[in-house]
Amino acid sequence: MNRPAAQAAAIGGATAHGVVAARTLLLNPLTLLAVGAAGGMVAGFLLYRYRKEIALSVSRACGMSKDFVLQQKESLADLLEETREREADAAAATGETSDTDVPPRTAG
Questions:
Q1: How far apart, in whole angstroms, are the C-alpha atoms of residue 43 and residue 49?
Q2: How many other CB atoms are found less than 10 A from the CB of residue 98?
Q3: Is 95 helix (H, G, I), strand (E, B) or coil?
Q4: By the 8 A CB rule, do 79 and 104 touch?
Q5: pLDDT tens column, 52-76
Q6: Residue of 102, 79, 82, 100 whose CA lies nearest to 91
Q7: Alpha-carbon distance 64 to 66, whole Å?
Q8: Which pLDDT band holds residue 51 (cuts at 50, 70, 90)?
Q9: CA dist list (Å): 49 to 42, 53, 54, 55
Q10: Buried b (16+ CB within 10 A) or exposed e, 65-77
């Protein structure tokens, strides 16, 4: 085929035919059941094959999230302590007593 228009028409026709065939197959309940079963078997096989790597990745992610939460708690406690110190310094500079004369609580 030397003509681009004829080539484009042939490709377009083949694509349209493929879409119709795929739609017909996917609308058939038996085909859907077979595709779902095959997909489930493949997913199960991959989960079984890589189960140790998956468990290791999940445990590593859990450990990282625990560390992140502890760092955020520590950071928040530091910010609260700094804020209370600034309020106390500002109150002492003006000679007033503050509402927050309560000693700071530790995080945890």
A1: 10
A2: 13
A3: coil
A4: no
A5: 999 999 999 999 999 999 999 999 9
A6: 100
A7: 5
A8: very high
A9: 10, 9, 10, 12
A10: eeeeeeeeeeeee
